[in-house]
Amino acid sequence: MANQTSTASIGSYMKTHLREYGMLLALVVIMVFFQYMTEGTLMRPVNLTNLFLQNSYIIIMALGMLLVIVAGHIDLSVGSVSGFIGALAAIMMVQWEMSIYIAVPICLLAGTIIGAAQGYWIAYWRIPSFIVTLAGMLVFRGLTLWLLEGQSVGPFPKTFQLLSTGFVKDIFDFGFERFNMTALLIGTSGAATIVALAARNRARQAKFGMNDEPFAFFLAKNGLIAFAIIYITFLLATYRGLPNVLITMAVLTSIYTFITNSTTVGRRIYALGGNEKAAQLSGIKTKRLTFLTFANMGMLAALAGLIFAARLNTATPKAGVAFELDVIAAVFIGGASMSGGVGKIIGAVVGAFIMGVMNNGMSIVGVGIDWQQVIKGLVLLAAVIFDVYNKNKSN
What we know:
Elements: H1 2-16, H2 18-37, H3 45-70, H4 78-95, H5 100-124, H6 129-148, H7 158-165, H8 181-207, H9 215-237, H10 244-262, H11 264-274, H12 276-281, H13 286-312, H14 323-333, H15 345-365, H16 369-394
Helix pairs in contact: 2-15, 3-9, 3-10, 3-13, 3-14, 3-15, 4-5, 4-6, 4-13, 5-6, 5-13, 7-13, 8-9, 10-11, 14-15, 14-16
């Protein structure tokens, strides 16, 4: 009877949290499918490393895009802004021979200013974000062509390239050939930290009677997450270790998860997207909050542009083309709502990985770029239909 009751409670919990865990299960299924279809190539250390490198800039921009969409807006300019910042970095570091320690902060500041400028018109002039950022997409695409004069500029200094192509060095030397012990220790420590924080959060919720998650489900979920992190870092340790961009993504994901889950600003962004008038009447400065979400988006787009340029080792006029489509798709696939007020940072990251694994897996299998676009479009449509269905069901 106890087991039946536990199973029933887990089943009911899953039904009420289908939006939260549905995409995570979809990612697991997609990875298992392509692992089989590629005859094990998908999870090989070298391919996993390439997977992180290829999707790092999408994931970084998805963190900012989630906040924009949760606030009830959209940003179509992120691809053009990232391409423009990459071009600006190339001009400063390659042609002007400016130090990376000066050029990178200037580029990040420029991205923040661009986002803030767009946020100003959206927040204080009430111009729809679709129009403002569509204009921004065209403006910065043109400015990128003008800045580069239609040509590619590179290569970048070696130090700058490490931003994307570098790896965390192994500080231990135990005589293991081609095994990065530091990577495994970082992964194990990260997994232990996640489990410890989850346990503390569960205890805090139980103290106030707010916890409805079955204990068996809690153990299984966190056990699987810890196993996945340790297993992936083990695989990476057998190759070259942890890529620098993976550390960057992990740190940013942790920061934005904390902001959205545990700060007043995060809660106010969700309130803004849920009902702007009610949020304004409750004393939330909605205009300033909207302005800040777009400034933040500009900064992350700039960082993504720097990482992409460092990976290519050159700035090209076509850099950033259609990035915004992958970023927006990742956020919606990850469970964000079109109407605002709903979505999680982890969901956006999972959505980005779903897109990345699909791109990588289909390329290995030999699916043409034409059918790749068709399949990604259908997946996005299915995710939105799933969101609308769940919303109508709850109502």
